[in-house]
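Researcher: I'm preparing a figure for a lab meeting and need a structural model of a single chain. I don't have an experimental structure, so a prediction will have to do for now. The sequence is pasted below. Please return the structure as tokens so I can convert it later.
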Amino acid sequence: MIDPVPGPDFVQLLDPTGSRAEPHRFGYSGSDAELAADLRDMLLIRRLDAEATALQRKGELGLWAPLLGQEAAQVGSARATRGADLIVPSYREHGVAWCAGIDPLDLLTTFRGTGMTDWASRPANFHPYSFVIGTQTLHAVGMAMALRLDGLVGNSDPNRNAAAIVYFGDGATSQGDVNEAFVFAASFAAPVVFFCQNNQYAISEPTSVQTKIPLYQRAAGFGFPGVRVDGNDLLAVRAVTEWAMERARRGDGPTLIEAYTYRVGAHTTSDDPTKYRSADEEQAWRAKDPITRLRNYLLGTSAIDQSWLDSVEAEAESLAERIRLGCVNLPEPKLEEFFTQAYADTPDALFSQRAEHLAYEASFEATR
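Model: Understood. Here is the structure written out token by token.
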């Protein structure tokens, strides 16, 4: 695969060495202090990801979808949202969940099998994880259309406006649901940002098998803008996502952002990426690591120093210990509780089934 070249069609504000790139029509307007906070998020998210992967290998999680290498795409886009915006993830957006304030242990309940996605710490504007590929894009368009109908788009007071952002991977762009979402969003000028993390592989299929043109160019066929951004460049991701979100809030309709990045780890912990990609390719992408890039830049501007990095490392160690201890002590669900979680108004038949289950369970106690 041929990497895109920075320029009008590929937004890069920070190159892989950590140096500021040439000025671009998209510019990052935040401070180095904000970038340092973003770097902290990325470091802690990477540690969360490493601990969750290790827990799965030890049999404490049934599955985990690693995000290694995609931290800048997730943190940069998440920090471009605000409280009234609606965030619709797929199943790998642990960094977005972190930025939304979701407790990592809540995330683990889903992958441990002790809970669903109704996490106690999930804010109202964060939609539960979607595990069926691409379906969440249609949900997001419907939610965005509701924002418009509720009068929360195109107001003269920018603080009264909101938009939706929906996450999906390059593989999802081959799904009918995603293309139908593009049609509806364009037809109704829905205030939605389609954020595609192109991590180069739909499980084992490279992007080159899925499409003959860059993914961002598909937006033109539906009648709205598409932008390709360096997904390992947090500054570029923030700048482009802020522009797209503000455009949607104003009432100018949808945007497709293709964050060109790389899944360094496996698709999930049930996958072996060595079967379909080379070690040389992986090493080439590790050289573009989003954390190293931002860390080098901030060290160069003296916005952070080694003592700052040491303090974040200590924070990461504490987080890791909390995750390890917390995971194995997550309360086991009781089957009887699930009978009343299928419907808003539980039908009598399910109450009867629960009673039968409890009687069956009690029969074992009687024989002990």
